[in-house]
Amino acid sequence: MMKVLGITGGVGSGKSEVLRCLKEEYGAVITELDETARILQKKGTVCFEKIVSIFGIEVIGSDGELDRKKLAEVVFGSKEKLKQLNEIVHPEVKCWVREDIRQKREKGIRLYVIEAALLLEAGYEEICDEIWYIYTRENIRRERLKESRRYSDERIDRMIASQYSEEVFRSRCSHVIDNSGAFEDTRKQIGEIL
């Protein structure tokens, strides 16, 4: 019997470490929705064609692929345009994930993990058996983002403000994993839940 597990949490919460643990220690198949969306927006795909038809050829880079930076500039200034982009990409990603789950289930995979910061916004509760919220205290998240990604305080403020609050994550997720301390403690919590 396959379990489909969703992993979400705010930026800098350490979701990548949790995914690595699930893959290495529990044999999980990991699907990161941001990466899947990137693949599904390559030149020649349905998403690519729809995006270009709505946002124009100016979002195409010199290599013929979508220029993600230009596309971001177009959509992130406008809620309406961001909504249009999400309405193109999210259904395609969800369709791909459902098919991938079906294939992995046929192969006897026991744990399938879907990761995305926007898992709840995109409506993945209907696909996942459980959704885990990876919680990390905000000061630690900020430290991690400054250290690993060299983000400024202003950028971190914008990113945190654009995501769901801790209360929303806690109210909508099946389990909370506290990833604020040593990872050994996180690993123990994962084992107890699984």
Short synopsis of the structure:
The chain is α/β, with parallel strands linked by helices and 194 residues long. The protein has 9 helices and 5 strands, in the order E-H-E-H-H-H-H-E-E-H-H-H-E-H.
Q: Determine the mean pLDDT.
A: 93
The outline comes out as globular
Q: Report the count of strand segments.
A: 5
Order of helices and strands: EHEHHHHEEHHHEH
The gyration radius over C-alpha positions equals: 18 Å
Helical amount among residues, as a percent range?
Answer: 40-55%
**Largest beta-sheet characterization:** 5 strands, parallel
Number of helices: 9
Strand order of the largest sheet: 2-3-1-4-5
SSE class: alpha/beta
Binned strand content: 5-15%
- Uncertain segments of ≥5 residues (pLDDT<50)? none
Terminal CA distance reads 14 Å
What is the fold's blueprint, element by element?
Blueprint: E1 3-8, H1 15-26, E2 29-32, H2 33-39, H3 46-55, H4 68-75, H5 79-106, E3 111-115, E4 130-135, H6 138-149, H7 153-162, H8 166-172, E5 175-178, H9 183-193
Parallel strand pairs: 1-3, 1-4, 2-3, 4-5
Your description of this structure?
With 194 residues, this protein is of the alpha/beta class. 54% of the residues lie in helices and 13% in strands.
What descriptive keywords fit this protein?
alpha/beta; 194 residues; 5 strands
